[in-house]
Amino acid sequence: MIKKVAITLFLVTILVSCRKNDSNLPTMDFKETEHDFGTITEGQKVEKKFTFTNSGKSDLIISNAQGSCGCTVGEYPTSPVKPNEEGVIKVTFNSQGKHGKQQKSVTISANTKNRKEMLQIFADVQAAEAK
Is pTM beyond 0.90 here? Predict the structure, then answer.
């Protein structure tokens, strides 16, 4: 019995000491993570710049900004964002072929604790007037 307890304590100690120190990881603190474009006309391209600050203690490296569909594109800084510096993710939505209420997202892959961050945009796409 004492042997089992000793082995269990030893394994728990190893697991705890091997855990990654999350306090040194970069952190993406966005001023806002959602934006509503309101009513737009089909075929219109709209964009929103989402500003964030790296509130962590190490460089923030973004590896991807993937839109939920081909109509939504995220552009991101390709250079590391230093601690306490700001960065911008530009999200562009092309409403061509879209109708009605739209909700799209951009998933950001980065070296943060969560590894993924998400931005969302909304729009109500109205049909273009016939000429």
Answer: no
